[in-house]
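Do me a favour: review this protein, sequence plus structure tokens, and tell me how the chain folds. Record follows.
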Amino acid sequence: MELFKPLDDLEIGASYFFRRSEVIQGNIANVDTPNYQPKDLVFERELEEALHLKRTDPRHMDPSKTGVKFKLVNSPDYSGYDSNKVNLDKELAKLAETNLMIRAINEALKKEIGKLKLVIQGR
């Protein structure tokens, strides 16, 4: 239903950022583990690919209905003294960015729920 589409979209974003936060926290927890390779959750590429689709004919598949998936990937961009590839500064920066996005999604959810309350109350 179109009325709940913004909530559905925000739920996808929230689940991505919550999951990414868990992955980053795992990287930070393993900062001293020899030969540990950090991971990241990739969402942007998948979303970008989905958004480049255009519906030029009503018989075409609707791009908004495509399933957006998250991919867990290794990020081999740093190597420490014990072959540990976790860069603590980068991981903490990614965690801060992720927490900001979670807060922004939370605020957007509050606004959308407020709109639904107004619709239900008939104002």
Remarks:
- The radius of gyration is 19 Å.
- The mean pLDDT is 79.
- Strands lie at 39-42, 71-74.
